[in-house]
Amino acid sequence: MNVLEVRDLGVRFGEVPAVRGLGFAVAGGEVLGVVGESGSGKSAAVLAVLGLLPPKAVVTGSVRLHGRELVGAPDKELTALRGKALAMVFQDPLAALTPVHRVGAQIAEAVRVHQDLSRRQAWARAVELLDLVGIAEPARAARAFPHEFSGGMRQRVMIAMAVANDPDVLICDEPTTALDVTVQAQVLEVLRDARRETGAAVVFVTHDLGVVAGIADRVLVMREGRAVESGPVEEVFARPRMPYTRELLAATPRLDREAAVLRGVPRPPVPVLRVENLVKEYRRGVRVVDRVSLDIRAGETLGLVGESGCGKTTLLMEILGLAAPRHGRVVVFGRDTARLGRRDRLALRRDLQIVFQDPMASLDPRMTVHDILAEPLRMHRLPLDRVPELLRLVGLAPEHAARYPQDFSGGQRQRIAIARALALEPRLLVLDEPVSALDVRIRAGVVELLAELKARLGLAYLFVAHDLALVRRIADRVAVMYLGRIAEIGPAERVFSAPRHPYTRALLAAVPLPDPVAERARPRVPLAGETPSPAGPLTGCRFRARCPVYPGLPETARSRCAGEEPELEGQDGAACHHASGGAR
Amino acid sequence: MWRFVIRRALFGLLVLWLVATTVFLLFFAGPADSVARRLAGPRAPQEVVNQIRDTLGLDRPLTQQYLGFLNKLLHGDLGTSFISQTPVSTLIMASLPATLWLVAGAAALWLTAGVTGGVICATAPRSLRDRLITVTVLAGISLPTFVLGIFMIFLALSVFPWLGLAPGPYIPPLEDIRGFFQVMIMPWITLAVVQAAVYVRLTRGSMLDTLGEDYIRTARAKGAPEHRVTYRHGLRAALTPVVTQFGVDIGALLGGVVVTESVFGLQGLGQLMIRSVRDGDLPVIIGAAVLAAAFIVVANILVDIAYSFLDPRVRLT
Ligand code: SF4
Q1: Which of A482, B41, B97, B162 has the fewest CB atoms within 10 Å of its CB?
Q2: Ligand 1 atom with least separation from CA of A579
Q3: What is the CATH number of domain B88-310?
């Protein structure tokens, strides 16, 4: 029995169509995954189902809930259904929760608008729901404000709110996109439970094929407002019929496959960057980066991975600052930053360039592409005739130099940012999440370009990313950071195929595979908890509280974890007393 | 929070000290005779000038005068008026109630009207009622206070004389509550109309921003009725800029509402200030300036405390 039926749905914003002729149906207890890139109309489509689009949007077609037509239904009727029969989980849970009310009150509100309960009863129910979605000490947590919660906890609150009235349809719009991978795994688990508890029909909107493979029963692929392909998830992934679906699948990097194509060519091991025992402290001795050592050799890509709060951004900033660190050493191209004069520092900056995550924010919209690329050349008094060559280098037409950044797509803008970084012929490029803001097909193109540039120009990359599958595709070596320290470092192939640190293993296990059969066959043991604050007392191994190995260890082995901080030895190993070379 | 209040209070004292010092230097720096002449006015006979020089001790070194001035100020002694020979503090205490009541009553009116109007506009942007209110607001902003005030007095005296509304003088509420309202209602409305205009625009803009936030959509997705979405989830976050403006306005107005007080003949601080400036009554000018600065300082501290109640993310540090 289909609970929700959508037929010939259309959404227009003024003259611009966002969704055209879309149809789908979901039965109770079933999960429909809706996938598409940005601008595919997937979010507009589900918001139209709830009638939550801004008033200027025109919705046509039919949306039936239990056979009852919703398009054009009076506002009052929709309000009564929303949050009760039709519930929604939104993407960014910080923006999606009212900042000035306690989370308990926000959940209680969802209960009270649909059920005749007293304030006290509604609050009790809110606490119960928080417990249900796995929040520790729910009675106390209910009194917190959203900003006091981590992203994962906020998303749990959103889910608690959505299931508060036992909905028939649960719509999730990119519910895990802003989250770290281990937290994503936890939240997906909560959503699975929620579906089981409520028996709701679930519409799950996402751009991540891995997530869909893990959670959906059927998939609907959308592009430019239309349905491209739909069917049972195993079938669509194994035998995609449409070229677009095939393209999407091909562009999605897979963590479980080796992809050596983009690796560098072996070069003499000249170190371009060496970091030794670097420490960065904030006030009161809180170490955000704690005795980190790593090096990058010419022509090599070091992938730096870790979840939010692991200190990778701080580490980058320390390196890029080219200033003398308080503790430890940073040696760039053989020169110790502690012993640099101002002039040397400026000269070194030429060799060390950075590309940021968001090209729109890093490119001045009032400058033409030519000016953007010419600026670093001017600053170092170099001839400007390199601009056309730079554009060609990143796969853009030199004729486009007179345009402004806004005239380009996201992927092209990132190419411009790369061209600017290359203008001064650097030897080391720091790439800070360079493709995270891009759609998967465009992402693949930019990664390809980076690999090609590396091979052609002999660049070294420090590649910071949270997408592990992507790192596997491009990095020669990988460093995994946890709470300010490097947990594991080594050749990419070794780290990915035989991870030694329990954290690395958990991290890898949390990345969903874009393959329903393989994904469902994997045991699901999400890592508990979230990265704690570096301000907490640290004795012994800092991963201990979350370590899945630790509880199973014999007493003597455990006391070592608790009493002695494991150190990382060399450039291939794990900072764990009980590291194993075994399989995941 | 107490640490915050203490720190801000100390900072406020610093501001007051700077204001007092500036005023002092402005009037007392320079040779004794020319200072005395400046204080006495250009047409005063030489005896008066001499007398002023002697009573104020202008012959003493400047630092000594300054220390004496500060010492008196700290003891709440603001000196004695040249003109009426009354202590300045007495003059101020006599004028303060009229201004205080004027601002308090008008503030209640303009805040209610301004915020309500702004919310009504923001919930239906570009609708007929939004446009109507916006036009009214523009009229309110462009209308000079004294024109509105005189018009109201005209209405009160010749069209609705049975209401008993009359321009000042100020009547204390404890003496005659009916008379108090009859005197105060017109100035309240006059002041509120001009102020409310600003608040409508401010609230409308801030509310429009807030109503575009994701959490508003979440509240709707819960099935919360629209008025609840608007007021419970929207308004509170939207109030922050309104509160800022409110603090600034209250602080500034308490120092004296010059035009409204004159039009309605209320003997408030604004009137006192005007009179003392016209007469060159220096001690009164200094006293009023320091008091006005004190109001602004206190209002700002209160605004910051109000923030922390409106928005739990704000930490008072
Ligand atoms: S040292 Fe102990 S607690 Fe730390 S990761 Fe290894 S096994 Fe786990």
Answers
A1: B162
A2: 6
A3: 1.10.3720.10
